[in-house]
Design brief:
The protein is α+β, with helices and mostly antiparallel strands. The chain has two domains: 219 residues, no CATH class; 208 residues, no CATH class. Helix content is 43%, strand content 25%. The chain is built from 13 helices and 20 strands. Strands 1, 2, 4, 9, 10, 11, 12, 13, 14, 16 and 17 form an eleven-stranded mixed sheet that branches. The chain has a three-stranded antiparallel sheet with strand order 18-19-20, covered by helices on one side. Strands 3-15 form a two-stranded antiparallel ribbon. A hairpin with a 5-residue loop joins strand 6 and strand 7. Helix 2 packs across helix 10. The longest helix is centred in the N-terminal third of the chain and has 40 residues. The chain is elongated, with a radius of gyration of 36 Å. The two termini are 25 Å apart.
Length: 483
């Protein structure tokens, strides 16, 4: 009887049911789209951070920056060229290899960090900046005056040749690129994990001291390098074994070499610039950060959340809009939809006074009338939920299909530098990077569950309005009214 009457009434009041369902559908669809876009923003931000530190890295440990000093002589690149006594112009070349940020930690610190509570894995790496100056000096030519170039002295003798030096000078190229020394026995963390090997292979765990190099694809294209080519770093030749392509944005380094080789060419034996840390529990990252800073003095710990706060550009703006404006807009639309659904249901009950009065006169109790109204409202809510989920999925699909490109700029660090980074540490080096990230809007099962919950809530709220109104009707009063 309940379902028969329910089906008949919904069919008879199709327009009113459609209006209520459409209002709920709009609010639910907006919630799905906003949640999906927010999720896409989070994934885009994760991609930006992964391009710096690699997959699975929860935090990094670097040496604390020293107090500012007026004496920066040790941090200034210095190039030495040989004097040439021969008549021929000889080519001059000089390399300088410097740790990023000029700050290093003892390699033993990696072990100490790995022993801290809450640390799953700790891997050390050495980020280097290489500046190569290559060119030659050209001798000037002495040109005598037209009168023979000599003038008489006080005694009538012949003086010094008179004329001027013409031409000459110097012509030098400066090549600036970055090198990352990776621990080949621990390839599960660090910047190289954010790139895929697209040609050749990656390092073997036995190549701790091998003169081999993995080259970023963009740098390889620029320098016309391929697997089997040779790269010279500070007069040491390395064989290219693989070409790596960054998953998103720019690569963290132009060249990747075994850590021991990086320490050798930079005269940084048993030194690292950065320690990449994985936590055993992602919910305890702040606790692990505090533990490391407390137990290992002279270090700075940077988490993914710290880096996320430095992301600016259109990605940050869109994320803020989706999180703040989108959230409040969704709430406002939902509240309005629920109120409209409730008022329309209550209004429908008012128009059905005679009907409900007759049913009560025939023996229906107030509770049964209320259940009938709530049942109709629940069906409207579920119908609105189904429509809302369909609209929300369509909206999320459109966003993913269009994949608007957002710009992510990482700020908050110092240092200057060229294409490979700058003179800051990896965190600071990222400050100069601007990445383009494609936005997607993935819909999770949780989002769909929220939509279903909202549909049920909308039906209950609308039913509560109408049920309360229906329960107050008295048969005698109802029968005296005519629709």
């Amino acid at each position: 009887m309940f379902f028969t009457y329910l089906r008949r009434e919904l069919r008879r009041r199709r327009k009113a049911a459609l209006v209520v369902a459409s209002g709920l559908a709009l609010g639910i669809a907006l919630v799905i789209v906003v949640n999906s876009v927010s999720s896409g923003m989070g994934k885009a931000q994760d991609k930006v951070l992964e391009s710096l530190y690699g997959l699975g890295t929860d935090m990094t440990v670097t040496k604390a920056a020293p107090a500012q000093s007026s004496d920066n002589a040790q941090q200034r690149p210095r190039f030495d060229f040989d004097a040439q006594d021969s008549d021929s112009d000889a080519e001059q070349s000089s390399d300088i290899v410097m740790p990023q940020g000029f700050q290093t930690l003892a390699a033993s610190t990696v072990t100490k960090v790995g022993e801290q509570n809450g640390v799953s894995d700790a891997v050390g790496g050495l980020s280097l900046q290489v500046i190569k100056v290559n060119g030659q000096f050209t001798r000037g030519q002495f040109q005598q005056n037209g009168d023979g170039g000599r003038q008489g002295g006080p005694g009538g003798g012949t003086g010094q040749p008179q004329g001027e030096v013409q031409g000459g000078g110097a012509n030098f190229d400066v090549n600036n690129y970055s090198v990352y020394g990776t621990d080949v026995t621990e390839l599960t963390a660090g910047p190289l994990t954010s790139s895929k090997i697209t040609s050749g292979r990656t390092f073997k765990s036995t190549e701790t001291d091998a003169k081999v190099v993995v080259v970023d694809s963009a740098y390889a294209k620029e320098k016309e390098l391929k697997v089997g080519s040779t790269v010279t770093i500070k007069k040491v030749k390395f064989k290219v074994i693989g070409i790596a392509t960054a998953d998103s944005g720019d690569a963290a380094a132009n060249l990747y070499v075994p850590l021991k080789q990086a320490q050798t060419i930079s005269d940084q034996k048993n030194k690292v610039t950065t320690i990449y840390v994985k936590a055993t529990d992602s919910q305890q990252i702040d606790t692990v950060k505090s533990t490391i800073q407390k137990n290992i003095s002279g270090t700075t710990v940077t988490t993914s959340a710290d880096l996320a706060d430095t992301v600016s550009g259109s990605l940050s703006t869109a994320s803020s809009l989706a999180t703040n404006v989108g959230k409040w807009l969704s709430i406002a639309v939902l509240v309005a939809a629920f109120l409209v659904a409730g008022l329309l249901t209550s209004s429908a009950v008012s128009r059905r006074v005679r009907e409900f009065g007759t049913l009560k006169a025939l023996g229906w109790r107030s509770g049964r009338v209320t259940r009938q109204v709530v049942g109709e409202a629940m069906v409207n809510g579920l119908l609105g939920g189904a429509l809302g989920i369909a609209l929300g999925l369509a909206g999320a699909y459109v966003v993913t299909a269009i994949s608007p490109t957002l710009e992510a700029q990482l700020g908050g660090g110092g240092g200057t530098g060229g294409p490979g980074g700058g003179f800051g540490g990896p965190g600071r080096r990222a400050a100069a990077k601007t990445l383009d990230v494609a936005l997607t809007a993935p819909v999770s099962a949780t989002t769909v569950a929220i939509a279903v919950g909202l549909a049920v809530a909308g039906g209950l709220i609308a039913g509560a309005f109408g049920g309360w109104r229906a329960s107050r009707l008295r048969p005698a009063d109802a029968l005296r009214r005519v629709e």
